[in-house]
Task: inverse folding
């Protein structure tokens, strides 16, 4: 993969120097303890949960304490650091055996977002290069790498914002689906990073967030973090997107991604495909914002991306109360696939990719 820092050497230094100045982050790392902002409780409660084991971190990922592909990857990396520190008093052979078991468990936490696998495999590769070290020293090296993964993600988000800001309209509505902001990343955000960058430049953008059933990431998370940063946002129901496009109230769509295949097909929150079709029908640009770590170059197309399904209770109940008719059948896919031909551009930290996506994606890894 290309050197991100080298590729972004021409970015304004003010951008790169502000990487710690985003007001919304999903995690903290303090004295070998991982703290996660419980996103299930937002916007009404800002509760930080402490994690001291890899198994508990994997469960937190599975249970949606933290979500968003880049944030999941960063969280998984720190989970593997916790595993290393928990095993540092074992002999070398047992350390390696048990640490790899923890890695295998972590990889099962959620199947669609490729950043989780990318981060865990990056730490495994680093560990293999340093197996001659003591378990304690190896744990310290893994900790530095996890911190680097986090820092690189924030820098990537800033670069994505820089590259993508010029694509948004100077005035008018911009629709975003689900949450692809600071909460879903290491900070600043991908789709919301582009919106933040454009507004900072002076664009008079009206951010429109759809509610994003069933977890309401748009209503609870996107709206919360934009308001927290002083950015005006309008909330609409998921079904309003087509109507607003038809009436000219939406001039662009920008979303994140959980996995991008080698041909440019994108797996993202369920409903993304619907929004993309509506955008095409109304001649509105549809942009995907994601770091290169979200691209899966060994997966040829969206047909080969595993799509997570979750339990019926997420749809049949709300705030602990049953809302559906008893006995109704339920299907709850978490993600869908947006075909590459519906995507106007994919915006990464290395630049803007345009159709055909295959050559540009290949170049990101060469």
Result:
């Amino acid at each position: 993969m290309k050197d991100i820092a080298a590729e972004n050497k021409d970015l304004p230094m003010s951008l790169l120097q502000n990487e710690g100045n985003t007001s919304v982050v999903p995690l903290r790392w303090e004295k070998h303890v991982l703290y996660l902002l419980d996103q299930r409780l937002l916007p009404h409660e800002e509760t930080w949960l402490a994690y001291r084991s890899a198994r508990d971190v994997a469960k937190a990922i599975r249970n949606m304490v933290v979500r968003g592909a880049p944030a999941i990857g960063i969280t998984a990396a720190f989970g593997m650091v916790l595993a290393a520190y928990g095993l540092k008093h074992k002999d070398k052979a047992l350390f390696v055996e048990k640490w790899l078991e923890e890695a295998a468990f972590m990889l099962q936490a959620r199947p669609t977002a490729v950043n989780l696998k990318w981060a865990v495999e990056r730490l495994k590769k680093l560990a293999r290069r340093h197996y001659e070290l003591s378990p304690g020293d190896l744990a310290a090296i893994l900790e530095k790498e996890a911190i680097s993964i986090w820092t690189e993600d924030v820098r990537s988000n800033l670069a994505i914002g820089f590259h993508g800001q010029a694509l948004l309209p100077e005035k008018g509505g911009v629709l975003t689906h689900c949450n692809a902001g600071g909460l879903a990343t290491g900070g600043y955000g991908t789709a919301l990073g582009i919106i933040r960058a454009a507004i900072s430049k002076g664009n008079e953008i009206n951010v429109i967030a759809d509610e994003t059933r069933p977890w309401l990431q748009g209503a609870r998370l996107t709206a919360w973090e934009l308001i927290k940063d002083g950015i005006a946002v309008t909330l609409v129901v998921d079904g309003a997107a087509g109507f607003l496009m038809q009436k000219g109230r939406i001039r662009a769509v920008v979303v994140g991604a959980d996995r991008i295949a080698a041909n440019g097909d994108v797996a993202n929150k369920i409903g993304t495909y619907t929004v993309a079709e509506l955008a095409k029908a109304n001649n509105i640009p549809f942009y995907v914002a994601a770091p290169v770590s979200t691209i899966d170059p060994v997966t040829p197309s969206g047909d080969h991306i595993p799509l997570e399904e979750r339990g019926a209770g997420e749809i049949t109940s709300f705030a602990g109360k049953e809302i559906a008719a008893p006995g109704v059948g339920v299907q709850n896919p978490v993600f869908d696939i947006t075909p590459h031909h519906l995507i106007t551009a994919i915006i990464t930290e290395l630049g803007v990719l345009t159709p055909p996506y295959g050559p540009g994606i290949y170049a990101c890894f060469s």
In short: The CA atoms of residues 125 and 139 lie 14 Å apart. Confidence is low (pLDDT under 50) at residues 1-9, 11-21. The chain has two domains: 4-159, 169-364.
